[in-house]
Specification:
mainly alpha, 4 helices, 121 residues
């Protein structure tokens, strides 16, 4: 009734159908994973935007000035004014007290005529 080629052809078609179903199922799982990751990305971006808004609110110069004035007696703060920009000469320089702890200062103090480079010999 059935020939061997017919049975092999039916087996090949059933195998192809099973393989197609397996590939489709894996593709749907991958798509679900991608959607879950995209949802997580949106959630994280919303959280970042919320944190940025909180940070900008907390670091407003007028708010910081008001807090400094409110807690000046408790924290023993010096009077300040809220500014975003200061001049370069208003920034205190760090004093170098000991040249032995400052490698660049130690080279300058030694007075040697050797040229120091990054070359390795």
């Amino acid at each position: 009734m059935f020939r061997t080629t017919d049975i092999l052809l039916i087996a090949a078609m059933v195998s192809a159908a099973a393989f197609t179903y397996k590939v489709k199922h894996e593709a749907e799982e991958q798509l679900a994973a991608v959607r879950k990751i995209e949802q997580q990305i949106r959630f994280e971006e919303d959280s970042i935007d919320l944190l940025k808004a909180d940070w900008s609110l907390l670091t407003q110069p007028s708010r910081l000035q008001k807090l400094a004035e409110t807690y000046q007696s408790e924290l023993q703060l010096e009077p300040v004014e809220a500014r975003q920009v200061v001049e370069l000469n208003e920034i205190p320089m760090r004093p170098v007290e000991d040249f032995s702890t400052d490698p660049v200062g130690a080279m300058a103090q030694s007075g040697t005529d050797k040229v120091v480079t990054g070359a390795v010999r």
